[in-house]
Amino acid sequence: MSNLDFESLSYLKLLLEVEGVGPQKIFSLLSKFSSIEEVFHASQEKLINVNGINRTLATKIRLASDSLSKAKEDLEETINKIDALGGQILSYWDEEYPEPLKKIYFPPLIIFTLGKFTAADEFSIAIVGTRQPSIYGKLQAEKFSSELASKNITIVSGLARGIDTIAHEAALKANGRTIAVIGSGLDVIYPPENKKLFEQIKEHGVIVSEFELGTKPDAQNFPRRNRIISGLSLGALIIETKFTGGAMQTAAYALDQNREVFALPGNVNVIQSEGPNSLIQRSEAKLVTCPEDILVELEAKLKPSLTERVQRPAIELNLFEQKVYEFLDTEPKHIDDISIATSMNISDCLVNLLTLEFKGVVKQLPGKMFIKC
Predict the structure, then answer these.
(1) pTM reported for the whole predicted model
(2) What is the pLDDT of residues 174-202, one digit of tens each?
(3) Could you tell me the sign of the dihedral formed by the alpha carbons of 360, 365, 368, 369, in that order?
């Protein structure tokens, strides 16, 4: 159950059902009113003073309050069904709501989940592609997913046939975590042959949907699903898709959300290679040939995840080396800043940084920049 009380969650669901009201307008309303309940009690004049709310929309909001009793009945029924499934309802304002998803332009304000998010899920990579992969695509999807999952990186995909299914299965085989974002209600498993996989992901990851229970996997749901796939991830890897494939939507959302996009190049004579090759050709995706390419590109962001499973052996540092090392972190620091922070001259700093580099705990970058390894 959401941390929002029942009353507040009822008002939120009611407001989301008003035609023309989405997350951005709700954020605008909450910048003027202290709660969603207060929005429904506001006068029309106060409502139209909110950015993006015209007189027509204000009238719709005021009329919607007449349906509050029905909204509460529906919510109570949904909560009972979600509880029976072992799931939960999360609102944008809940602590359990994934932080990366909050940062996209159009975040879902309510999501339904099976399984639990963990801190490790903030270090996620999406792997998506065609439902009809070639042998090459299947092998590469398994390779990338397995190796990334083995490095404590959560694999996000859409539970569809083909590349998505392979990515989920490979992550689980590597004893890693995986998140499936679906385009139907949590009680509608699609495709049906993935029922066993669905249950495995629920136990070793998370199933996510923004659709009400009972929602069928209709075509119009999948673009909304795809924006969540990219929104949960630091980057998206596209493995085989046609120009018109859903994976290209995920790539477009990732670019809009300021996430990294990676593409596996393919045979120009194979239709499944159209999408990735075009993304590379337009410089919208980084060409990757192995999982290491992704790790290098996202090294700073993935550092906590990559080091979590590795217990670094104790290394003896002298007083000055320790002082320099404690100032550094996974964000590059310039030698001038290090010198000022440690009260050492630049020459002494460089000597200590050199010894730290020899000990394998510091790395020098171009431009006299340094980071912790």
Answers:
(1) 0.79
(2) 999 999 999 999 999 999 999 999 999 99
(3) negative
